[in-house]
Amino acid sequence: MVLLAGAVATLLTGAFLPRDRQWMARGVAVAALVAAVAATLPALGARRTVYGHSYAIDAATTTARLLIPVAALLVVGIASGRVAGNRRETEFHVLTLLATLGAVLLAGASDLLLLAVAYLLSSVPLSALAGWARDRRGAEAALKVYLIGALLGVALLGGAALLTGVAGGASDYDRLADGLAAAPSVAVAVGVVGVLAGLLFKIGAVPGHFWVPDAVQGATIPAGALLTTIPKLGGLLAAYRLFTVVPVDVVNWPLLVAVLAAVSMTLGNFAAFGQADPRRLLAYSTVSQVGYLLMAVAVAGRADRALPALLAYLAGYAVTNLGAFAVLAAEPHDNLAGYRGLAARRSWSAAALVICLLGLVGTPPTAVFAGKLLVFTAAWDGGLAWLVVVAAANTLASLFYYLRWLVPAFSGVDRRPALPRATRRRALAVSGAVAAGAALLGAVATVPVYRLVEQTLQR
CA nearest 3: which of 59, 54, 69? Predict the structure, then answer.
Protein backbone atom coordinates (compact mmCIF):
# COMPACT_ATOMS: atom_id res chain seq x y z
CA MET A 1 0.00 0.00 0.00
CA VAL A 2 2.88 2.36 0.73
CA LEU A 3 4.43 1.67 -2.68
CA LEU A 4 1.09 2.15 -4.45
CA ALA A 5 0.37 5.39 -2.60
CA GLY A 6 3.92 6.55 -3.30
CA ALA A 7 3.50 5.92 -7.04
CA VAL A 8 0.27 7.92 -7.12
CA ALA A 9 1.76 10.73 -5.03
CA THR A 10 4.86 10.87 -7.22
CA LEU A 11 2.73 11.06 -10.35
CA LEU A 12 0.55 13.86 -8.96
CA THR A 13 3.55 15.77 -7.64
CA GLY A 14 5.30 15.70 -11.00
CA ALA A 15 2.13 16.66 -12.87
CA PHE A 16 1.85 19.99 -11.06
CA LEU A 17 5.52 20.93 -10.96
CA PRO A 18 7.54 22.85 -13.55
CA ARG A 19 10.37 21.07 -15.31
CA ASP A 20 13.08 22.63 -13.14
CA ARG A 21 11.45 21.30 -9.95
CA GLN A 22 10.90 17.68 -10.90
CA TRP A 23 13.43 16.70 -8.24
CA MET A 24 10.61 17.04 -5.72
CA ALA A 25 8.84 14.08 -7.36
CA ARG A 26 12.08 12.14 -6.99
CA GLY A 27 12.06 13.01 -3.30
CA VAL A 28 8.53 11.65 -2.94
CA ALA A 29 9.58 8.39 -4.64
CA VAL A 30 12.60 8.03 -2.36
CA ALA A 31 10.43 8.71 0.70
CA ALA A 32 7.97 6.02 -0.43
CA LEU A 33 10.74 3.44 -0.84
CA VAL A 34 12.20 4.24 2.57
CA ALA A 35 8.73 4.08 4.12
CA ALA A 36 8.16 0.68 2.47
CA VAL A 37 11.30 -0.66 4.13
CA ALA A 38 10.26 0.79 7.48
CA ALA A 39 6.77 -0.71 7.16
CA THR A 40 8.32 -4.16 6.70
CA LEU A 41 10.33 -4.16 9.92
CA PRO A 42 7.38 -5.04 12.23
CA ALA A 43 6.80 -8.20 10.15
CA LEU A 44 10.26 -9.65 10.81
CA GLY A 45 9.87 -13.26 11.92
CA ALA A 46 6.18 -13.44 10.94
CA ARG A 47 4.83 -16.51 9.17
CA ARG A 48 1.22 -16.44 7.97
CA THR A 49 -0.98 -15.87 4.94
CA VAL A 50 -3.36 -12.94 4.46
CA TYR A 51 -6.12 -11.85 2.08
CA GLY A 52 -7.81 -15.23 1.87
CA HIS A 53 -4.53 -17.18 1.79
CA SER A 54 -3.49 -15.38 -1.41
CA TYR A 55 -0.41 -13.59 -0.03
CA ALA A 56 2.21 -15.12 2.23
CA ILE A 57 4.05 -13.22 4.96
CA ASP A 58 7.15 -15.27 5.70
CA ALA A 59 10.93 -15.14 5.53
CA ALA A 60 10.98 -15.00 1.71
CA THR A 61 8.39 -12.23 1.47
CA THR A 62 9.94 -10.21 4.27
CA THR A 63 13.35 -10.41 2.61
CA ALA A 64 11.82 -9.30 -0.68
CA ARG A 65 10.00 -6.42 0.99
CA LEU A 66 13.33 -5.23 2.37
CA LEU A 67 15.62 -6.04 -0.53
CA ILE A 68 13.53 -4.90 -3.51
CA PRO A 69 12.89 -1.32 -2.27
CA VAL A 70 16.57 -1.00 -1.32
CA ALA A 71 17.50 -2.12 -4.84
CA ALA A 72 15.04 0.44 -6.22
CA LEU A 73 16.71 3.15 -4.12
CA LEU A 74 20.04 2.25 -5.71
CA VAL A 75 18.40 2.44 -9.14
CA VAL A 76 17.12 5.94 -8.33
CA GLY A 77 20.66 6.91 -7.33
CA ILE A 78 22.09 5.45 -10.53
CA ALA A 79 19.47 7.36 -12.53
CA SER A 80 20.32 10.71 -10.95
CA GLY A 81 22.76 11.72 -13.65
CA ARG A 82 20.55 10.59 -16.54
CA VAL A 83 16.99 11.56 -15.67
CA ALA A 84 17.52 14.66 -13.51
CA GLY A 85 16.08 17.68 -15.31
CA ASN A 86 14.46 15.56 -18.00
CA ARG A 87 10.83 16.37 -18.75
CA ARG A 88 9.98 12.69 -18.17
CA GLU A 89 11.85 12.38 -14.88
CA THR A 90 8.63 11.85 -12.94
CA GLU A 91 7.59 9.06 -15.31
CA PHE A 92 10.81 7.17 -14.60
CA HIS A 93 10.30 7.25 -10.85
CA VAL A 94 6.61 6.31 -11.06
CA LEU A 95 7.45 3.34 -13.27
CA THR A 96 10.23 2.32 -10.87
CA LEU A 97 7.77 2.30 -7.96
CA LEU A 98 5.23 0.26 -9.93
CA ALA A 99 7.87 -2.25 -11.02
CA THR A 100 8.97 -2.52 -7.39
CA LEU A 101 5.38 -3.08 -6.28
CA GLY A 102 4.89 -5.81 -8.89
CA ALA A 103 8.07 -7.59 -7.82
CA VAL A 104 7.04 -7.50 -4.15
CA LEU A 105 3.65 -8.98 -5.05
CA LEU A 106 5.33 -11.69 -7.12
CA ALA A 107 7.58 -12.65 -4.23
CA GLY A 108 4.69 -13.16 -1.83
CA ALA A 109 2.00 -14.47 -4.21
CA SER A 110 0.46 -17.60 -2.71
CA ASP A 111 -2.38 -17.85 -5.20
CA LEU A 112 -2.26 -18.41 -8.96
CA LEU A 113 -4.67 -15.53 -9.59
CA LEU A 114 -2.53 -13.12 -7.60
CA LEU A 115 0.55 -14.49 -9.37
CA ALA A 116 -1.02 -13.59 -12.73
CA VAL A 117 -1.97 -10.09 -11.56
CA ALA A 118 1.51 -9.51 -10.11
CA TYR A 119 3.06 -10.69 -13.38
CA LEU A 120 1.09 -8.11 -15.36
CA LEU A 121 1.75 -5.34 -12.85
CA SER A 122 5.48 -5.95 -12.95
CA SER A 123 5.66 -6.45 -16.75
CA VAL A 124 3.97 -3.30 -18.06
CA PRO A 125 6.36 -0.87 -16.28
CA LEU A 126 9.34 -2.81 -17.66
CA SER A 127 8.27 -2.15 -21.24
CA ALA A 128 7.76 1.53 -20.51
CA LEU A 129 11.11 1.81 -18.76
CA ALA A 130 12.90 0.10 -21.64
CA GLY A 131 11.55 2.76 -24.01
CA TRP A 132 11.72 5.66 -21.58
CA ALA A 133 14.30 7.58 -23.65
CA ARG A 134 11.93 7.52 -26.66
CA ASP A 135 14.71 7.02 -29.18
CA ARG A 136 15.08 4.35 -31.88
CA ARG A 137 17.02 1.91 -29.72
CA GLY A 138 14.66 2.43 -26.79
CA ALA A 139 11.63 1.78 -29.00
CA GLU A 140 13.15 -1.49 -30.17
CA ALA A 141 13.93 -2.48 -26.58
CA ALA A 142 10.39 -1.67 -25.41
CA LEU A 143 8.83 -3.60 -28.28
CA LYS A 144 10.88 -6.73 -27.57
CA VAL A 145 10.12 -6.63 -23.85
CA TYR A 146 6.43 -6.12 -24.55
CA LEU A 147 6.02 -8.78 -27.22
CA ILE A 148 7.97 -11.53 -25.46
CA GLY A 149 6.35 -10.61 -22.15
CA ALA A 150 2.87 -10.74 -23.69
CA LEU A 151 3.55 -14.09 -25.40
CA LEU A 152 4.89 -15.80 -22.30
CA GLY A 153 2.33 -13.99 -20.16
CA VAL A 154 -0.42 -15.74 -22.13
CA ALA A 155 1.36 -19.03 -21.42
CA LEU A 156 1.41 -18.18 -17.70
CA LEU A 157 -2.31 -17.32 -17.69
CA GLY A 158 -3.16 -20.51 -19.56
CA GLY A 159 -1.02 -22.60 -17.25
CA ALA A 160 -2.58 -21.01 -14.16
CA ALA A 161 -6.07 -21.66 -15.51
CA LEU A 162 -5.23 -25.28 -16.29
CA LEU A 163 -3.69 -25.94 -12.86
CA THR A 164 -6.68 -24.35 -11.16
CA GLY A 165 -9.04 -26.49 -13.20
CA VAL A 166 -7.36 -29.84 -12.59
CA ALA A 167 -6.99 -29.00 -8.88
CA GLY A 168 -10.76 -28.80 -8.48
CA GLY A 169 -11.02 -25.02 -8.73
CA ALA A 170 -8.48 -24.26 -6.03
CA SER A 171 -6.04 -21.51 -6.93
CA ASP A 172 -4.50 -20.76 -3.52
CA TYR A 173 -1.39 -22.76 -2.74
CA ASP A 174 -2.78 -24.13 0.54
CA ARG A 175 -5.34 -26.21 -1.38
CA LEU A 176 -3.51 -26.46 -4.69
CA ALA A 177 -1.00 -29.04 -3.43
CA ASP A 178 -3.76 -31.47 -2.40
CA GLY A 179 -5.66 -30.91 -5.63
CA LEU A 180 -2.66 -31.49 -7.88
CA ALA A 181 -1.71 -34.70 -6.08
CA ALA A 182 -4.78 -36.41 -7.54
CA ALA A 183 -4.75 -34.64 -10.93
CA PRO A 184 -3.64 -36.17 -14.28
CA SER A 185 0.11 -35.86 -14.60
CA VAL A 186 0.00 -34.72 -18.23
CA ALA A 187 -2.34 -31.84 -17.44
CA VAL A 188 -0.26 -30.82 -14.43
CA ALA A 189 2.91 -30.93 -16.54
CA VAL A 190 1.40 -28.67 -19.22
CA GLY A 191 0.15 -26.23 -16.59
CA VAL A 192 3.48 -26.12 -14.78
CA VAL A 193 5.36 -25.49 -18.04
CA GLY A 194 2.95 -22.66 -18.90
CA VAL A 195 3.37 -20.89 -15.56
CA LEU A 196 7.11 -21.50 -15.62
CA ALA A 197 7.35 -19.95 -19.10
CA GLY A 198 6.04 -16.63 -17.76
CA LEU A 199 8.39 -16.72 -14.80
CA LEU A 200 11.35 -17.52 -17.06
CA PHE A 201 10.64 -14.32 -18.97
CA LYS A 202 10.50 -12.40 -15.73
CA ILE A 203 13.83 -13.68 -14.47
CA GLY A 204 15.53 -13.72 -17.89
CA ALA A 205 16.36 -17.42 -17.99
CA VAL A 206 16.58 -19.68 -21.05
CA PRO A 207 14.40 -19.88 -23.15
CA GLY A 208 12.72 -16.65 -22.02
CA HIS A 209 15.97 -14.69 -22.15
CA PHE A 210 15.86 -13.38 -25.73
CA TRP A 211 14.78 -9.89 -24.72
CA VAL A 212 17.53 -9.35 -22.14
CA PRO A 213 20.63 -8.37 -24.20
CA ASP A 214 18.79 -6.20 -26.72
CA ALA A 215 16.63 -4.51 -24.08
CA VAL A 216 19.55 -3.74 -21.77
CA GLN A 217 21.60 -2.38 -24.68
CA GLY A 218 18.74 -0.28 -26.09
CA ALA A 219 17.40 1.08 -22.80
CA THR A 220 19.08 3.75 -20.71
CA ILE A 221 21.67 2.51 -18.23
CA PRO A 222 19.44 3.09 -15.15
CA ALA A 223 16.59 1.24 -16.85
CA GLY A 224 18.98 -1.59 -17.72
CA ALA A 225 20.03 -1.79 -14.08
CA LEU A 226 16.40 -2.17 -13.03
CA LEU A 227 15.57 -4.67 -15.79
CA THR A 228 18.39 -6.99 -14.75
CA THR A 229 17.76 -6.84 -11.01
CA ILE A 230 14.30 -6.12 -9.61
CA PRO A 231 12.21 -8.51 -11.78
CA LYS A 232 14.58 -11.36 -10.92
CA LEU A 233 14.14 -10.85 -7.19
CA GLY A 234 10.39 -11.26 -7.38
CA GLY A 235 10.30 -13.87 -10.14
CA LEU A 236 12.73 -16.31 -8.53
CA LEU A 237 10.92 -16.22 -5.20
CA ALA A 238 7.61 -16.72 -7.02
CA ALA A 239 9.06 -19.77 -8.80
CA TYR A 240 10.41 -21.19 -5.54
CA ARG A 241 7.07 -20.74 -3.78
CA LEU A 242 5.13 -22.36 -6.64
CA PHE A 243 7.31 -25.44 -6.88
CA THR A 244 7.05 -26.17 -3.17
CA VAL A 245 3.39 -27.11 -3.79
CA VAL A 246 3.76 -29.06 -7.06
CA PRO A 247 4.08 -32.78 -6.19
CA VAL A 248 7.32 -34.29 -7.48
CA ASP A 249 5.68 -37.71 -7.93
CA VAL A 250 3.17 -36.17 -10.37
CA VAL A 251 5.63 -34.06 -12.40
CA ASN A 252 9.41 -34.36 -12.28
CA TRP A 253 9.86 -30.60 -12.23
CA PRO A 254 13.24 -30.65 -10.37
CA LEU A 255 14.90 -32.20 -13.43
CA LEU A 256 13.31 -29.60 -15.72
CA VAL A 257 14.46 -26.69 -13.55
CA ALA A 258 17.93 -28.19 -13.15
CA VAL A 259 18.34 -28.53 -16.94
CA LEU A 260 17.15 -24.94 -17.44
CA ALA A 261 19.63 -23.79 -14.80
CA ALA A 262 22.52 -25.58 -16.52
CA VAL A 263 21.57 -24.25 -19.96
CA SER A 264 21.06 -20.68 -18.68
CA MET A 265 24.43 -20.44 -16.93
CA THR A 266 26.25 -22.05 -19.87
CA LEU A 267 24.60 -20.01 -22.62
CA GLY A 268 24.91 -16.77 -20.65
CA ASN A 269 28.61 -17.29 -20.03
CA PHE A 270 29.57 -18.35 -23.54
CA ALA A 271 27.46 -15.63 -25.15
CA ALA A 272 29.24 -13.04 -22.99
CA PHE A 273 32.67 -14.14 -24.22
CA GLY A 274 32.48 -12.18 -27.47
CA GLN A 275 30.66 -9.08 -26.23
CA ALA A 276 32.48 -5.76 -26.64
CA ASP A 277 29.59 -3.60 -25.39
CA PRO A 278 29.63 -3.57 -21.56
CA ARG A 279 25.84 -3.40 -21.42
CA ARG A 280 25.43 -6.58 -23.46
CA LEU A 281 28.16 -8.19 -21.39
CA LEU A 282 26.26 -7.43 -18.17
CA ALA A 283 23.03 -8.57 -19.81
CA TYR A 284 24.42 -12.01 -20.61
CA SER A 285 26.04 -12.04 -17.20
CA THR A 286 22.59 -11.77 -15.62
CA VAL A 287 21.39 -14.73 -17.69
CA SER A 288 24.23 -16.83 -16.30
CA GLN A 289 23.57 -15.59 -12.75
CA VAL A 290 19.96 -16.71 -13.03
CA GLY A 291 21.23 -20.17 -13.89
CA TYR A 292 23.09 -20.33 -10.58
CA LEU A 293 20.04 -18.99 -8.72
CA LEU A 294 17.76 -21.59 -10.30
CA MET A 295 19.85 -24.28 -8.62
CA ALA A 296 18.16 -23.39 -5.33
CA VAL A 297 14.74 -23.49 -6.99
CA ALA A 298 15.51 -26.96 -8.38
CA VAL A 299 15.81 -28.34 -4.84
CA ALA A 300 12.87 -26.44 -3.37
CA GLY A 301 11.29 -28.54 -0.65
CA ARG A 302 14.06 -31.16 -0.84
CA ALA A 303 16.94 -29.32 0.83
CA ASP A 304 16.63 -27.37 4.06
CA ARG A 305 19.27 -24.89 2.96
CA ALA A 306 17.58 -24.06 -0.36
CA LEU A 307 15.51 -21.01 0.64
CA PRO A 308 18.09 -19.35 2.94
CA ALA A 309 20.72 -19.91 0.23
CA LEU A 310 18.48 -18.39 -2.44
CA LEU A 311 17.77 -15.32 -0.30
CA ALA A 312 21.46 -14.82 0.50
CA TYR A 313 22.44 -15.13 -3.17
CA LEU A 314 19.69 -12.74 -4.28
CA ALA A 315 20.84 -10.09 -1.83
CA GLY A 316 24.47 -10.42 -2.91
CA TYR A 317 23.61 -10.44 -6.60
CA ALA A 318 21.35 -7.37 -6.35
CA VAL A 319 23.93 -5.04 -4.80
CA THR A 320 26.80 -6.40 -6.92
CA ASN A 321 24.97 -6.10 -10.22
CA LEU A 322 23.72 -2.61 -9.38
CA GLY A 323 27.25 -1.61 -8.40
CA ALA A 324 28.51 -2.64 -11.84
CA PHE A 325 25.76 -0.60 -13.48
CA ALA A 326 26.62 2.38 -11.27
CA VAL A 327 30.17 2.33 -12.63
CA LEU A 328 28.76 1.96 -16.13
CA ALA A 329 26.53 5.00 -15.57
CA ALA A 330 29.49 7.04 -14.32
CA GLU A 331 31.66 5.90 -17.25
CA PRO A 332 29.20 5.28 -20.12
CA HIS A 333 31.21 3.77 -22.97
CA ASP A 334 29.86 1.60 -25.79
CA ASN A 335 33.02 -0.47 -25.96
CA LEU A 336 35.26 -2.12 -23.40
CA ALA A 337 38.21 -0.31 -24.94
CA GLY A 338 36.72 2.95 -23.70
CA TYR A 339 37.69 1.96 -20.16
CA ARG A 340 41.39 1.99 -20.95
CA GLY A 341 43.25 3.90 -18.26
CA LEU A 342 40.25 4.09 -15.90
CA ALA A 343 42.39 3.23 -12.89
CA ALA A 344 44.75 6.12 -13.67
CA ARG A 345 42.11 8.78 -14.15
CA ARG A 346 39.45 7.59 -11.66
CA SER A 347 40.79 5.13 -9.13
CA TRP A 348 37.56 4.93 -7.10
CA SER A 349 35.52 3.91 -10.12
CA ALA A 350 38.13 1.33 -11.04
CA ALA A 351 38.10 -0.05 -7.49
CA ALA A 352 34.30 -0.35 -7.52
CA LEU A 353 34.45 -2.05 -10.91
CA VAL A 354 36.97 -4.60 -9.65
CA ILE A 355 34.89 -5.38 -6.58
CA CYS A 356 31.64 -5.78 -8.51
CA LEU A 357 32.97 -7.77 -11.47
CA LEU A 358 35.02 -10.14 -9.33
CA GLY A 359 32.02 -10.29 -7.02
CA LEU A 360 29.84 -11.49 -9.92
CA VAL A 361 32.38 -14.25 -10.53
CA GLY A 362 32.00 -15.29 -6.90
CA THR A 363 35.44 -14.37 -5.63
CA PRO A 364 35.86 -14.41 -1.83
CA PRO A 365 35.15 -12.50 0.33
CA THR A 366 32.27 -10.99 -1.66
CA ALA A 367 28.57 -11.43 -0.95
CA VAL A 368 28.01 -13.42 -4.16
CA PHE A 369 30.73 -15.86 -3.10
CA ALA A 370 28.86 -16.57 0.14
CA GLY A 371 25.53 -16.87 -1.65
CA LYS A 372 26.93 -19.08 -4.40
CA LEU A 373 28.63 -21.36 -1.86
CA LEU A 374 25.34 -21.77 0.00
CA VAL A 375 23.42 -22.49 -3.22
CA PHE A 376 26.00 -25.06 -4.31
CA THR A 377 25.73 -26.75 -0.91
CA ALA A 378 21.93 -26.81 -1.09
CA ALA A 379 21.99 -28.29 -4.60
CA TRP A 380 24.47 -30.96 -3.49
CA ASP A 381 22.27 -31.84 -0.51
CA GLY A 382 19.29 -32.03 -2.84
CA GLY A 383 20.95 -34.71 -4.99
CA LEU A 384 22.08 -32.48 -7.88
CA ALA A 385 25.81 -33.10 -7.67
CA TRP A 386 26.10 -33.05 -11.48
CA LEU A 387 24.61 -29.56 -11.56
CA VAL A 388 27.11 -28.35 -8.97
CA VAL A 389 29.95 -29.59 -11.17
CA VAL A 390 28.47 -27.78 -14.19
CA ALA A 391 28.06 -24.60 -12.15
CA ALA A 392 31.64 -24.76 -10.85
CA ALA A 393 32.97 -25.12 -14.40
CA ASN A 394 30.83 -22.18 -15.54
CA THR A 395 32.05 -20.06 -12.65
CA LEU A 396 35.63 -20.65 -13.70
CA ALA A 397 34.81 -19.88 -17.34
CA SER A 398 33.04 -16.62 -16.44
CA LEU A 399 36.29 -15.19 -15.13
CA PHE A 400 37.43 -14.71 -18.74
CA TYR A 401 34.89 -12.12 -19.87
CA TYR A 402 34.93 -10.20 -16.61
CA LEU A 403 38.71 -9.89 -16.94
CA ARG A 404 38.22 -8.64 -20.51
CA TRP A 405 36.61 -5.59 -18.94
CA LEU A 406 39.14 -5.16 -16.15
CA VAL A 407 42.33 -5.51 -18.19
CA PRO A 408 41.82 -2.28 -20.21
CA ALA A 409 40.94 -0.37 -17.03
CA PHE A 410 44.42 -1.06 -15.66
CA SER A 411 46.28 -0.81 -18.96
CA GLY A 412 47.78 2.43 -20.24
CA VAL A 413 46.43 5.94 -19.91
CA ASP A 414 43.45 7.33 -21.81
CA ARG A 415 44.29 10.73 -23.28
CA ARG A 416 40.72 11.63 -24.18
CA PRO A 417 38.89 14.44 -22.31
CA ALA A 418 36.95 13.60 -19.20
CA LEU A 419 33.24 12.87 -19.42
CA PRO A 420 30.74 15.68 -18.75
CA ARG A 421 30.18 16.57 -15.14
CA ALA A 422 26.51 15.60 -15.40
CA THR A 423 27.47 11.92 -15.40
CA ARG A 424 29.16 12.20 -12.02
CA ARG A 425 26.38 13.35 -9.71
CA ARG A 426 26.85 12.89 -5.99
CA ALA A 427 23.91 10.47 -5.74
CA LEU A 428 25.48 8.35 -8.45
CA ALA A 429 28.81 8.23 -6.62
CA VAL A 430 27.07 7.36 -3.36
CA SER A 431 25.06 4.59 -5.04
CA GLY A 432 28.17 3.07 -6.56
CA ALA A 433 30.09 3.26 -3.30
CA VAL A 434 27.23 1.75 -1.27
CA ALA A 435 26.69 -1.06 -3.76
CA ALA A 436 30.40 -1.87 -4.02
CA GLY A 437 30.80 -1.76 -0.25
CA ALA A 438 27.81 -4.05 0.24
CA ALA A 439 29.15 -6.41 -2.42
CA LEU A 440 32.48 -6.61 -0.61
CA LEU A 441 31.29 -6.71 2.99
CA GLY A 442 28.00 -8.49 2.43
CA ALA A 443 29.59 -11.87 3.04
CA VAL A 444 30.10 -10.87 6.67
CA ALA A 445 26.34 -10.42 7.12
CA THR A 446 25.42 -13.60 5.25
CA VAL A 447 25.86 -15.99 8.20
CA PRO A 448 23.62 -14.15 10.72
CA VAL A 449 20.97 -13.50 8.06
CA TYR A 450 21.13 -17.14 6.99
CA ARG A 451 20.65 -18.32 10.57
CA LEU A 452 17.78 -15.87 11.10
CA VAL A 453 15.96 -17.26 8.06
CA GLU A 454 16.58 -20.84 9.20
CA GLN A 455 15.13 -20.08 12.63
CA THR A 456 12.06 -18.47 11.03
CA LEU A 457 11.48 -21.50 8.83
CA GLN A 458 11.72 -23.87 11.79
CA ARG A 459 8.96 -22.15 13.75
Answer: 69
pTM above 0.90, yes or no: yes
Which neighbouring-strand residues pair with 56?
49
| pLDDT digits 0-9 by tens, 320-373 | 999 999 999 988 888 998 888 888 888 888 888 999 999 999 888 888 998 999
* Cα(287)–Cα(267) distance, integer angstroms: 8
Q: Given a cut of 80, is residue 374 above it in pLDDT?
A: yes
Phi-psi region of 280 (alpha: psi -120 to 50; beta: other; left: phi over 0): alpha
What span, in angstroms and rounded, lies between the C-alpha atoms of 171 and 345? Answer: 57
Give dist(CA 235, CA 138) in Å, integer. 24
Instruction: List % helix, strand, coil for the chain (3-state, nearest 5).
Output: 75, 0, 20
Where exactly are the structural domains of the chain? 253-459
Measured between its terminal Cα atoms, the distance across the chain in Å is: 28
Side-chain-side CA neighbours of residue 438 (13 Å): 23
- DSSP 3-state of 382: coil
| Banded pLDDT at 423 (limits 50, 70, 90) | very low
Q: Which pLDDT score is estimated for 457? A: 60
What DSSP string runs through 284-349?
HHHHHHHHHHHHHHHTTTT-TTHHHHHHHHHHHHHHHHHHHHHHHHHS--SSGGGGTTHHHH-HHH
How far from 410 is each of 176, 327, 341, CA to CA, in Å?
A: 55, 15, 6
CA R_g for the chain: 21
The model's pLDDT over 45-86, given as tens digits with 9 standing for 90+, comes to: 788 889 888 999 998 999 999 999 999 999 999 998 788 778
